[in-house]
Design a protein that fits this description.
- This protein is mainly alpha-helical.
- It has one domain: Methane Monooxygenase Hydroxylase, Chain G, domain 1 (Up-down Bundle), CATH 1.20.58.
- The protein has seven helices and no strands.
- The N terminus is likely disordered.
Length: about 230
Amino acid sequence: MVEHHIVRAYDEELEGLTAELSRMGGLAEAEVSDSITAIVRRDVALAQGVISHDVRLDEIEAEIERRAIRMIALRQPVADDLRRTISALKISTNLERCGDLAKNIAKRALVIAESDPLTPLTRSIERMGELVSARLKDVLDAFAARDIDRARAVWERDQEVDEHYDSIFRELLTYMMGDPRTITSCAHLLFVAKNLERIGDHATNIAEIILYEVTGEQMTDARPKLDSLDRS
């Protein structure tokens, strides 16, 4: 009977950890979406909101870390339970970085809002942002359902984000060479595109973590990446 209570208590702790991680994922997804909207609509208030709300993700990550470390120390989980606990730690780190990148995009939005609109470029950023947001949503849904097929699909589409980044990179260079007055705005948009690409990379990281959590196997295949531009 005592052992039954211990197992049930541990299951409840795992469920609580998963719920907290899902909440963090929802917040990160909203931050990324709002930062893109702030760029597209030149919405200063929304950008400021993204910046100020980033602290919530930091707080949740710290709470997940505290819970996970406590569970490992006191419960000494093994096999599937250990993988779930370690995966929660890793996923929370990736989500926190997505929040940081969304905050960086929001900061760029504040500067871009003060310059003349570059509508064609903004639309390109919007398309890339929608793609990245969709990948983040898909991988979070895969985590919630422990769906390895959906996680693998996110992993296999990693190259799509790279292709958008390359296209925007070339488009921005064309604008800057054609009209030096656009250099400042284009430089900020280039940073935005790079931040979006990195968010896409974090979504791919999470997909790999899900695959490990569910199957116990590490991804050994190389990610499908473009080689045309430096991705350091």
